[in-house]
Backbone:
């Protein structure tokens, strides 16, 4: 199940840029700060109804967030406020047909999960079964003879 939630841009806080401009002065850029304006929604129909009620607010100041749980939803808001990737789109993008499917939301949540380091190198060990071990050895031999690309 996918949950939806709406947030408004409540302010634009100045953020110091790490890029240096001509005279080595650092530039200030504007970072949008988002706050929840709805509860968790489970129906796209309820979301459309809510967005229509907010039609007087500029669409770039309204974001629709997607998540598979309430905890993940909170993480996405924190990420958006930090200027990082999140599973959200502007209300304008959502109303014009931009959708995020369930698999994309779950994939993004998995990739952003900090519980485990997914960048750890894989340590290969040969399987215990003789037939699987022989298959790996045959693949290795083909690779060494140039029959397989790496």
Residues:
């Amino acid at each position: 199940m996918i949950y939806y939630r709406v947030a408004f841009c409540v302010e634009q806080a100045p953020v110091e840029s790490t890029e240096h401009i001509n005279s080595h002065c650092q530039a200030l850029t504007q970072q949008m700060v988002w706050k929840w304006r709805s509860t968790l929604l489970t129906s796209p129909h309820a979301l459309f109804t809510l967005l229509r009620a907010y039609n007087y607010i500029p669409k770039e100041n309204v974001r629709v967030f997607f998540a598979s749980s309430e905890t993940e939803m909170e993480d996405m808001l924190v990420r958006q406020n930090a200027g990082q990737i999140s599973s959200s789109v502007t209300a304008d993008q959502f109303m014009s047909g931009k959708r995020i499917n369930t698999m994309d939301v779950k994939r993004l949540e998995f990739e952003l999960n900090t519980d485990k380091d997914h960048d750890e190198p894989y340590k290969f060990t040969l399987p215990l079964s003789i037939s699987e071990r022989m298959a790996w050895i045959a693949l290795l031999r083909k690779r060494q003879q140039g029959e397989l690309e790496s």
Q: What stands out?
A: The chain is about 35% helix and 25% strand.
